[in-house]
Design brief:
Helix content: 55-70%
Strand content: 5-15%
Number of helices: 30
Structural class: alpha/beta
Radius of gyration: 28 Å
Distance between the termini: 72 Å
Number of strands: 7
Length: about 675
């Protein structure tokens, strides 16, 4: 009787352990749910840990419980504990796919992608059908720089139905590194799938998509036949125009030619065919994204001017909205509707009053610009724009639509796990300052994916500040502000300090009253982190030649001047002196050209900042990464910084494209 009673107790315990593990798995699932806030997910992770501790107290050798606890420890940044738990789980139950996958992700976390690949391959040896293991191999290949192999792995996962965010995100990253040398229907299909996927930073696909379109339309062949009707049915071309900026001179010529063909047909038939409307709207969106960099011939300009006069006359006669739509589409391909004489009359309608297909164009060309102008009125710097023609007012750059895919975390967690810093005495909310935030994508990613921060984003361009403020408002982000340098300087002078400073685009030489090094030094206290890059962009031979022209002829950054400079470059684009410039995405927007030629980054600001950080009494280098994101030994980098501070140009870090993190000692 007694023996039987003991068996019953054992079975009861096993059932209880099974229930606890089920609850732990459910809680862990919640802890990784995108639909919950970071705080809710942390709470779920703690619940999971509680269930696991209770289960493992009853059955310490439970392989599944040990493995799941390893995942919890890994999510908490306790990588050594996680590693031990995964191995303990495999010791109790060899051949588990899940634990080999866990070890693979542990190796990725510890920046050992080759080791990670071995673990994922071991998982596949146990189960050839494991999508998680196959996806792990793709991630490992990508992080080893084998972008073509990783890309094909991601494609295979999508074909088998594994449409996970991490798969799309990984595929997009690989796509940016692929060379497209021939027309490829499969690549075009992939590009359409990526462009149609919500939540991806589509702006980062411009080079990849442009290369595919270049090959599809045989743009290297001067005799290639391009048909307007075929282009108007090309889903890839239309999506690319709607969502990217393609840094490809031949593709820019294609878009300019298609726009000319549309207006030529309209001039002949006095109507815009339904079949051409989607392409027309897509070109209008694209032209806006370039800051209207696309060149137009004199006859086109005359036709558009006549169409704008006609729209004004239609308003004067009280024309109904429907009668204006075709003309507005044509006008928007050549210039912002906000800059037209009839802009005031457009304001009688809200954006939602227009047909759905027209709304993205009207938002970009009119409503968003109106909102951004209202935001600019809050800053003294607006006075500098008052003497400019409407079309010469700077446009925000870079142009982006989606934040990059990230997993939510906290800055304190990153400081502890990535930089090995003690965060116990830090406040609940940390303050980040992003210097040179441009139009705010990186700053908003920090504000959106770190749950314990407030972000101050600073930029020289009022257009960037206005655009970023509008987009942050649209996203409902309340933990970020965008300021010009003047307000940031006053904020720091008033005694406010920050816990993390990120250096983006450097101030231009026009910012004569600003010392970035002095601002950083004043804004930081003991334990604050400064993250900067050692390379400065916009230093091609073409840029230097154009800046020389600007200085010699005292050129002003008007739209006409910028277009003329671009035309000069494009006319000579096969000349080696210009090729590096025409490969840069900035060149394909007037905003980008204006920044690099008329407000270039001041290299003296970075030198002064690096010299300040080289003082080992005040600052400590805690991390350095190369351009591929791989961590480097800090000792040799520190020696280079020291040598440079002492005047040794041989060991200069400038231009090496490293990402470096310094911590203030006191």
């Amino acid at each position: 009787m007694r023996a039987k009673h003991q068996v019953q107790i054992s079975q009861s315990q096993q059932a209880h352990v099974a229930r606890l593990l089920l609850q732990a798995n459910l809680a862990y699932g919640e802890s990784n749910s995108k639909g919950l806030s970071h705080i809710q997910r942390l709470k779920a992770r703690q619940e999971c840990r509680g269930y696991l501790n209770e289960a493992l107290a009853l059955k310490p050798e439970h392989a599944g419980g040990l493995g799941l606890l390893g995942r919890v420890e890994m999510d908490d940044g306790q990588l050594e504990k996680a590693h031990n738990l995964f191995n303990a789980s495999l010791n109790h139950q060899p051949g588990q796919v899940q634990q080999y996958c866990n070890l693979g992700y542990w190796a990725l976390k510890t920046e050992r992608p080759a080791l990670a690949e071995q673990y994922f391959l071991q998982a596949l040896d146990c189960d050839r059908q494991s999508a998680a293991a196959f996806c792990g191999v793709a991630h490992a290949k990508r992080l080893q720089g084998q972008f073509d192999v990783a890309y094909l792995h991601y494609r295979k996962l999508l074909e088998t139905g594994a449409e996970w965010d991490s798969v799309y995100s990984g595929m997009l990253t690989c796509a940016q590194h692929l060379e497209v040398n021939k027309a490829d229907a499969a690549l075009a299909h992939d590009a359409i799938a990526l462009l149609q996927r919500d939540g991806l930073p589509h702006q980062e696909l411009g080079r990849f998509v442009g290369a595919i379109i270049h090959q599809q339309y045989d743009l290297d062949n001067p005799d290639a036949q391009i048909f307007l009707d075929a282009a108007s049915d090309d889903e890839l071309l239309i999506l690319a125009l709607q969502k990217t900026l393609m840094p490809n001179p031949a593709v820019e010529e294609l878009v300019t030619m298609l726009r000319r063909a549309i207006i030529a047909e309209v001039a002949k038939t006095v109507e815009l065919r339904d079949e051409l409307q989607r392409l027309t709207l897509a070109i209008a969106q694209y032209a806006d994204r370039t800051g209207y960099a696309l060149a137009a011939e004199d006859d086109e300009e005359r036709l558009v001017s006549a169409i704008n006069d006609s729209i004004q006359a239609q308003f004067a006669l009280g024309e109904e909205q429907d009668g204006l739509i075709g003309s507005l589409m044509i006008s928007a391909m050549y210039g912002a509707l906000f800059h037209q004489p009839f802009a005031v009359q457009l304001g009688q309608w809200n954006l939602m009053d227009w047909p759905l297909a027209l709304q993205p164009v009207l938002a970009a060309s009119y409503y968003d610009r109106a909102e951004e102008e209202a935001i600019k009125q809050n800053f003294d710097e607006k006075a500098e724009e008052l003497c400019l023609d409407k079309t010469d007012v700077p446009q925000a750059w870079p142009s982006w639509s989606q934040l990059a895919y990230r997993t939510e975390s906290s800055l304190k967690t990153l400081m502890a796990t990535e930089l090995g810093l003690d965060t116990e005495n830090l406040p609940a909310t940390l303050r980040i300052m992003v210097c040179g935030a441009q139009s705010g994508q990186r700053a908003m990613e920090l504000a959106g994916y770190l749950d314990d921060v407030e972000v101050i984003a600073v930029d020289e361009s009022l257009a960037n500040i206005a655009k970023a403020t509008r987009m942050a408002n649209e996203m409902g982000m309340e933990n970020i502000v965008f300021w010009p340098w003047s307000i940031a300087q006053r904020f720091v002078a008033d005694g406010h300090q920050v816990h993390w400073i990120e250096i983006g685009r450097l101030p231009s030489p026009a910012m004569t009253s600003l010392s970035l090094a002095a601002l950083v030094n004043e804004a930081t206290g003991s334990g604050a982190v400064v993250h900067m890059h050692t390379a400065i962009a916009e230093q091609t031979s073409g840029d230097k030649q154009i800046r020389k022209l600007v200085a010699e002829h005292k050129l002003q950054p008007s739209r006409q001047t910028l277009r003329q400079l671009r035309r000069m470059v494009l006319s000579n684009r096969n000349d080696a002196a210009w090729q590096e410039l025409t490969a840069d995405a900035d060149f394909f927007s007037l905003g980008g050209c204006r920044d690099r030629w008329f407000r270039p980054q001041d290299t003296a600001q970075l030198k002064e900042l690096m010299a300040m950080a080289s003082n080992e009494v005040e600052w400590k280098l805690v991390k350095a990464r190369d351009v591929d994101g791989h961590s480097l030994a800090t000792g040799p980098v520190q020696q280079q910084i020291q040598a440079e501070a002492l005047g040794s140009e041989v060991q200069s870090l400038m231009g090496q494209n490293l990402s470096v993190y310094f911590v203030k000692r006191r």
